[in-house]
Amino acid sequence: VNALSMMAPYGPAEKQALLEAADLKTRAETLIAITEMTLARENEDFGSSLQ
């Protein structure tokens, strides 16, 4: 989880949220949430270009 947090292609705000996570479980949950939001945003952008 720590290695993925360091390598993840996220901006400063997302990286800061990962750094501020109180423990490994919270960091993992935060990483999952950020990843899900990013994927949803990309899917939304992809879908809108087809219309």
Describe the structure.
78% of the residues lie in helices and 0% in strands. The protein is mainly α. It has one domain. α2 packs antiparallel against α3. It is elongated. The relative contact order is 0.15. The model has no long low-confidence stretch (mean pLDDT 90).
Largest sheet: none
Query: Which bin fits the share of residues in helices?
Result: over 70%
Stretches with pLDDT under 50, minimum 5 residues: none
Question: How would you sum up the global shape?
Answer: elongated
Structural class: mainly alpha
Radius of gyration computed on alpha carbons: 13 Å
Counting structural domains, the number is: 1
**Number of helical segments with 4 or more residues:** 3
**How many beta-strand runs?**
0
The helix/strand series, from N terminus to C terminus, equals HHH
Which band does the percent of strand residues land in? under 5%
**Mean pLDDT metric:** 90
Q: Please give the alpha-carbon distance between the first and last residues.
A: 37 Å
